[in-house]
Amino acid sequence: MTANSDDTRAAGPRSGDLLTIGQLSARSGIAHSALRYYESLGLIQATRTSGGQRRYSRGMLRRIAFVRAAQRVGLSLDEARDALDRLPERPAPSGSEWDRIATTWQDRIDEQIAELEWLKARLTGCIGCGCLSLTRCALHNADDRLGQAGPGAHYLRTHDPATELEGGR
Amino acid sequence: MTANSDDTRAAGPRSGDLLTIGQLSARSGIAHSALRYYESLGLIQATRTSGGQRRYSRGMLRRIAFVRAAQRVGLSLDEARDALDRLPERPAPSGSEWDRIATTWQDRIDEQIAELEWLKARLTGCIGCGCLSLTRCALHNADDRLGQAGPGAHYLRTHDPATELEGGR
DNA sequence: GTGCAACTTCAAGCGAACTTTAAGTCAAGC
DNA sequence: GCTTGACTTAAAGTTCGCTTGAAGTTGCAC
Predict the structure, then answer these.
(1) Which of B27, B99, B132 sits opposite A94 (nearest CB)?
(2) Are residues A147 and B95, on separate chains, in Cβ contact within 8 Å?
(3) Cβ atoms within 10 A of the Cβ of B162, count?
(4) How big is the CA angle at A97 (ends A24 and A63), to the nearest 5 degrees?
(5) CA geometry: angle at B94 spanning A132 and A128, to 5°?
(6) Do the chains contact at B156 and A71, CB–CB below 8 Å?
(7) Distance between CA atoms of residues B26 and B20, nearest Å
(8) Which of A67, A79, A103 has its CA nearest to residue A166?
(9) What beta strand segments (E) does chain B contain?
(10) Integer distance in angstroms from CA B54 to C1' C29?
(11) Which of B37, B99, B126, B136 has the highest count of CB atoms within 10 angstroms of its CB?
(12) Mind listing the pLDDT tens digit for each residue in A38-91?
């Protein structure tokens, strides 16, 4: 960005609240290209200057934070947009819709933690047994557990986030 | 020209130790196509019948389980193969190399759990405050934390697994 | 008014992890 | 011997989440 003054926006008299894409990128840690990509997906919005440049309200930082949290919880960007679309866009999302999402996400987080704990426990067992015990070693016994999830790329996702969000309640 | 003149022993679907790709797929829960893909990457190996069909030893189930565990820990398939290559292929991996990997993975798991706990705690705060508190809400405050990791797609990976495995020797 | 960083669009490219398709071959039960 | 389903290869296609490149425009300090 230019070495213009250190406030958020030096240009216009009343533009104190608006961020350029470079500023939004710096604040959010998301690359310019990714922000434009997010805009193309409808995750964030921008107004335009008369010259066509994007200007973002500070509320976009909140939306980006929401998206990043959604990703960490395992949602795709499409799913994050759906969730955002259901939130009232006030000063901040509020009310039962947000409660519902937060609760759902916490459940998902708990599931992910539980799975990691399971894996960790099995690895601990392996260390203890030197991975030589056919009856106790995680990697020996894992195949008993492997077949249970059915075919497909289910190993990175243990459940379908869409059904979780849409049909869950 | 008999199908099983050799040690391959391709006499039938339930011929002792060797599995067809269909059987391996059923046992492991991994699609046929993915198994062939894994073979192309060197993650698993097969002998061949005189007719050219793959036959897998039961040890491949262990290797697949290892790969799946590696994926859950956040490794790429290439990294999983590197780890497999360093394990002695005995009845089971054993010894200090396995200890080292298991320990490294447990550290990674701990990190992932910690991050999930952090996110969960922030969501809990949001529920408590109805997401209206500018000072406490995770999504309001997240941007303060967002910029700290620098640019790039750092939000899904908080560290580089390659340096973890290679440099940590 | 000039210089230059920061911006614009659009399309193509990328990397990971697979899946799909097409056309053919093998294995085993009857 | 025939049939049928499981298998073979190679290449192309898919999805996700972006990044890169080219070529041009805007905004602002000097």
Answers:
(1) B132
(2) no
(3) 13
(4) 5
(5) 60
(6) yes
(7) 10
(8) A79
(9) 47-48, 54-55
(10) 21
(11) B126
(12) 999 999 999 999 999 999 998 899 899 889 989 988 999 999 999 998 876 655
- Residue pair B136/A98 in contact by the 8 Å Cβ criterion: no
Q: According to the model, what pLDDT value does residue B93 have?
A: 54
Tokens 């997240």 identify what position? B142
The CA–CA distances, whole Å, from B160 to A83, A156, B54, B96, B126 equal 30, 19, 35, 23, 30
Instruction: Please state whether strand C lies within 7 Å of residue B16 at its CB atom.
Output: no
Per-residue H/E/C for B135-163 = CCCHHHHHHHHHHHHCCCCCCCCCCCHHH
Q: What is the DSSP string of B115-141?
A: HHHHHHHHHHHHHHHTT--TTT-HHHH
The parts of chain B modelled with pLDDT lower than 70 are: 1-16, 88-95, 125-169
CB contact under 8 A, B94 and A140: no
Enumerate the nucleotides of strand C whose atoms come under 7 Å of any protein CB. 5-9, 16-21, 25-29
CB atoms within 10 A of CB B139: 23
Does this model's pTM top 0.85?
Answer: no
Locate B129 and state its tokens: 């405050």
Q: How far is A30 from chain B (nearest CA, A)?
A: 6
CB atoms < 10 A from the CB of A67, how many?
23
Angle of CA points A79, A94, A162, to nearest 5°: 20
pLDDT tens-digit map of B128-166: 444 433 344 555 444 444 433 333 333 333 333 333 333
DSSP class of residue A6? S
Are B115 and B154 a contacting pair, CB within 8 Å? no
